[in-house]
Every structure is written in C-alpha cells, then in structure tokens.
Amino acid sequence: MSFRHLWAVTRKEIQHILRDRATLILVLLTPTAMLLIFAYSLTVELQHIPIAVLDYDRGATSRDFVQQITAGDDLDLYAQVASEDEIEDLLMRGEIKAALIIHPDFSRDLLALRGMPLQIIIDGTEPESGGFAVDHISWRAEKFINTALSDQLQTMGLALDTLQPLDLRVRTWFNPSLKPRNDVIPGMISIMLGFPALSVALTLAHEREHGTMEQLMATPITRTELLLGKMLPYIFVGLVNVVLIPLFAIAWFHISFNGSFLLFFALSAVFLFSILGVGIVIGVFIRTQAAALALSFLVIFFPGFFMTGIFFPISSMPELVRMESLFLPGTHYAIITRGVFLPGVGLDILWPYTVMMFGLGVVFVGIAALFFRKKLG
Amino acid sequence: MTSPIILTQALSRDFKETRAVDALDLSIQPGELFGLVGPDGAGKTTTLRILAGLLDITEGSGSVAGHDLSEQPEAVKPKIGYMAQRFSMYGELSVHENLLFFADLFDVPRAEMAERTSRLLAFAGLTAFTGRRADHLSGGMQKKLALACTLIHQPEILLLDEPTTGVDPVSRREFWHILSELHAGGTTILVSTPYMDEADRCSMVGLMYAGRLIECAPPARIRAKIEGEMIEILPHDWQAAQDLLRTLPGVFEVQTYGESLHVLVDKAKKRLPKIKKAFRKNKLTYNGLRPAPLRMEEAFISLIRDLEE
Ligand SMILES: Nc1ncnc2c1ncn2[C@@H]1O[C@H](COP(=O)(O)OP(=O)(O)O)[C@@H](O)[C@H]1O
Ligand SMILES: [Mg+2]
Predict the structure, then answer these.
(1) What ipTM goes with this model?
(2) Ligand 2 centre from A72 Cα, in Å?
(3) Which CATH architecture has domain B6-223?
C-alpha cells in the first residue's frame, strides 16, 4: 500500500467535501439537525403530562418529593386526591394520564435506606404518556434520593457510591422497558453517524456517474488504497460529529455525560470505521447515487432505528432479527453510547462490543475490497 | 519492422446482445499516430477502454506494451495515458490540483513535479488558469487539462477517446498541434475521432464500423477510397426534392438526415448551382442549401456500399 496514493485520494476527497456545499451540509450539519428534530418529535408531545398524587405519608419529605417531581415541564400536578376512587374517576375521564400513590411509610423506609414505597397507576389506553410519566417519576425519584439521602449517608459514614444499588432497586420498582429521552438521545448518535456512511456510498456512486471513476481506474491505484482513501475523510468528518453531537446534547437537552469523553471518542472512531464499512460495501455494488441513497436508508438508517434496540428492546424481537441485529455495528454502539453517557461505564465492560464493531468493520471493508473491481460495466 | 506495441487478435466484447467490438485485429507500431475513425456506436470507446484495461474481454486477446490485457491489466496502467471521451477530471479541484492528484497516483518523482507541471501547463496553454476550478473551464480547456493529466507521468502510449469532439475549431487545431508534437517526440498515440478530416493528420488510420475494422491504411489511401463531397438541403417538399435529386447527374446518393437531405456528389462546387437551377425549374423551394463537411456516417455508408458491390 502506497501512502502517497492513499493521501492523494483522501486530500482530493477533503477538497471535494469542503468545496461542495451539499456534501458539506450533509456530513457536518445534518446529523446535529436531525438529532434536534428527532429528539423534539419524540418529546414535545410528552410534556406537561397531568398526574394526580395520593399522599398517605403526608410528611415533610413526601411533600418535598411531590414538589420536586412536578417541578419540571414533564409532569403537571393536576390534583392532590384523598382516595383511590378519585384517581380512578380522573383517569376514566381522561383528566390525568397517571397517578402517584405515596405509601404511609414512605419517609421512614426512605431514610432507613429500605427503598422507596411508591405506586404508580397509569392510563392503559395511553401507554406512551403513562410510560413517560413513569420514566420521569423514576428519573426524578433518583435525583431526589441522591440529594435527600446524601446527608443521611454521610452521617452514617457510608460512601456515596453505595447509592448505586439503591438506584437500581428504585428502578426495578418501575416499568423498566420504556426509556426516557435521556436514554434515547445517546442511542440516536449511532443513527446520526450513519450520515458519513451514506456520504461514502454516495461519493463512490458520484464518481461513477461523473465519469471520474473511469479515469481513476486507468491509474495504478490499488483497490485498498482507493477504498481506504475514500473512507478516511469521512471518518474525520464523523469524528467532528462525535464531538458536536454530545456537546449539543449536553448543552441543549441537559443530558448528563458521566463517562470518559476520550473513551467515547475512541470507541466512536471504531464505530465509524465499521459503519463506513457498510457504506463502502454499498458504494462498491451500487452504480447510481439514487440507488445508493435508497439502499443506505434500508441498510443503515432503517435497521438503526428499529433493530438496534434504541426504540424497541432487542429482547422483544423475534429470534432471527435478534441474531441479525448482532451484525449491525449500531447495536453495539448504542450499548456503548448509553453506557458511556449514563452510568459512566468503562472499557472493562464495553470491550466485547468494541471488538465486535471492529470485527464487523474489517469484514465489511474486506468484502468491499474483494468485490471491487477496477473495471467498468 | 519492430514488434507492435498494441496488438489485438480476434478481440470481441459483448454487452448483453450487442457485440460492441467484433473480432478486431489491430496492430500498432511504436511511435505511430494511429487514428481510429468511425461513426457513433462503431465501438471506438469500447476498444480504447479494453486497451486501457478498463473492460473485460469477451473473446480473443490483446496486449499493450508487452503485457497481456487479461492476465496483467494493472501492469499496463503505468505505461499508458488514457483520456476518456467524457470530461472526467475533478470539477471542484483547480487545474493545478488535478495535475498534482494524477502525479501522485502515477508516482511522479517529487523532485520533478514542479518542473513537469509548469511545463505541461505551458504546453497545454493553461498557465493563466492554474488556479481555476476545472468545472469553470471552457470545453476546449477541459480537454487540454485532461490531456495534461494523462501526460504527467510521461507515458509511452496515449489512448485518447474523441479528444476533439465538442470543441471549437481553434482549440481543435491547437489540440492536434500538441498531438503532432508528442508524435514527433516518439510517443505512440491511439486517438479516436468521428471526423474524417482529422484522419489526415494521422500516420495510420483504422476505419471502424459496427465493431469491425473495415480498413486500416495510411490516410491518403483511405481518402482515395471515399469519393465525393456533401451538400445539405432543407427542402419544403421533401419527397419531390428527393425524387428530383436522384435523377441529377453527379449525384451518388441521397440520404435523409432529420429534416434535411444529405446529397453525396462528386464535386460540391460544381453541383451546387446545377441543383439550384433544377429546383427552380421544378418550382421546388428550400430553406437552406449549402456544402457540408462529409460526415463519417455518410462516408461509411458509401464505402460499405462500395465494398458490398
Ligand atoms: N456499457 C455498455 N453497456 C451496453 N452497451 C454498450 C456499453 N458501452 C457501449 N455499448 C454499445 O456498444 C456499441 C459500441 O459503443 P461505443 O464503443 O461507445 O462506440 P463509439 O465510441 O464508437 O461511439 C454501441 O452499440 C453501444 O450502445
Ligand atoms: Mg465513443
């Protein structure tokens, strides 16, 4: 492999990206813009969900708790009620989507670190808003516990990280299958990084359509030099997105980023390599930009949405689809991004997914190099 | 006689049902300026692409610079400069960047890059446009840029596919001037063209028609075989004009060409006034009547008729 050839192709491609406004927008701005659009279309409707609260505890802690839960834009306190009959009535009339019942020993159990005796009733006819109510309550409950109990823990001489098991225990109290947007956005990064992959597929088709591929094939460049040289600039561009998207997610959506950014960056580079591998395979087999676009949606974006477990849990998929999703780089990357963003998981846990992504990338690029022929027609 | 630098034996190439190149035997000596002349669809592009290693051979064999095209297509590539019929430089890159790109891919020694690029830019008359984006060049300049890029690694063989089609007459003349210089410098050139007049500038001409090489000889001998000149008429009564023309002396053939009639005559200058007179006498009117360059289509049809007779 000649680095001079490789760099010639890479440099040319960068010049193309920088000078062709359509490509520049596609690779640099579209991912962030799409993130914004998707995130909003998923959350906008689910704000200000009316809920009722039935507080049997009636202590200062439970009042605080209710206040905190309804403090944001997510949930609105529609009514404080006195009986479960009232809840049923309000639910039936559709005036509330969910109700929160605080048990009499709420404060006692909480301060004794025995858990958080809560009950949530949701409107089964509207599982979405009900589910999101559950998620928001659980999310705010976690925060509440963390602040309410930190003094308590300190006086008991316990380290702060003993909170973790408590967090998990609280979660199991609630419906764990629906995820709040906190969880969706990190998962969606994998879809957004499909755009550089799409660009790679398009750029090969573009060269065929414009006849430059013919000229390129008449030079002594090797297949690997050509394909890698085409991929490299889009890995760079993808990495710019890897920096932009989390910054945006943190600044705009106030998503917490608990892990190491360097790790996230490195693993994202591996993901880019493998998803660009998919793009390059498409580019090798498909001759026109229109067809490459259609196939990219089918192979990169559609499975990214529906098969990587971002919106629909993989565990609920048929066996065949589950197997198939293992061969999608996005499945592994969704786990990685969620792990790095939310609990701040490290490489000790994420390495198998990283290895899988890298392996898939090697396979894809291998297939592309094998089937790419320096021939026309 | 030395051994040929380009050689094909019973070379054929099919596209589904179409046989684009049909049992082609081509033998080109080093240093030749070989013109491959033929109408659209004759198989010129397909032939050049095969010789550049860009298309698989269906039947037969071919070799370029001593390398078999089926066995070692990659070994051929550093030796040739191939210029596609379509403009195939990078439009967003400047003239200079395009040159550097191909210099890198052909491993032009770095020490020689600056000297070679400036010499080629001057040679192609592009020095003033070094920094201009390739897609902002005129058609003629784009062709010259493409030629400069194919020359950057000083190939022994040039394969040029219709380099002067769609180019203004001045650029066309300049282009052929450049080719003559390269020819004088010893480069083997295979150039395809649909224009018969360009064949005169070649040292050897191959006439291609329907995938076959129907004639291969020095230009003077080819021209001697194609007699006649062309007159183009746009008559109002198309059928009557055709019938009348067929009866006139000195008219070899009348072919319809879109709305107009193409009349193949022995001498255009001599026949033009006679045709005008005959039209007037028969009260036939027309929009235009003028001598036209003999297009390869017509020349071929007449040649093939001769061959068939
Ligand atoms: N890629 C292709 N696919 C199908 N048919 C082709 C292809 N390339 C050329 N042909 C056909 O082969 C014949 C010769 O074409 P070509 O070599 O382009 O001729 P020329 O360059 O002399 O105009 C034509 O009938 C053309 O339609
Ligand atoms: Mg052609």
Answers:
(1) 0.78
(2) 69
(3) 3-Layer(aba) Sandwich (3.40)
